[in-house]
Amino acid sequence: MNRQLALMKYGFGSFIVGQSILFAFWSPAKYHPAVFLGYLAVVVVLFCLVGWLAFRRLVSSLQRLARRLPIRQFYQSMADRHSAGALVLGILGSLLFVWGGYWMTTRPASMKLVSESVIGWTCIVLFGLAAVGWGYALMLKLSRR
Fold this sequence. Notes:
Helix content: over 70%
Low-confidence stretches: none
Number of strands: 0
Number of domains: 2
Distance between the termini: 34 Å
Mean pLDDT: 83
């Protein structure tokens, strides 16, 4: 098994199980929005650190390109690697999370936890952008046919 696949399998698997166990005992959503955003920042930093530690030797031997990869080329390679059905599933999954974020922000105030609005808006923005990316890749795939 290659290193990236192992990191994704075991890293994300333990991350998902760990999050569930952590949230059973302590949920940052119950506290001030700054606590949730701080928690989110720590998770992102830890994920980047683990990725850097796992891949630093492999990446150090690579040469930099003279210029950046254009966005269209990035999404074209994404479209080439996925089927149209997989791209549609990516869009639908992202839109499901957008709907969940919308639901969190529009619940009555008496039913909301303190930071649900911040979590909801974070979901709307993050997964809304993901849906746009999946949609662009799907558009590129269908335009090539």
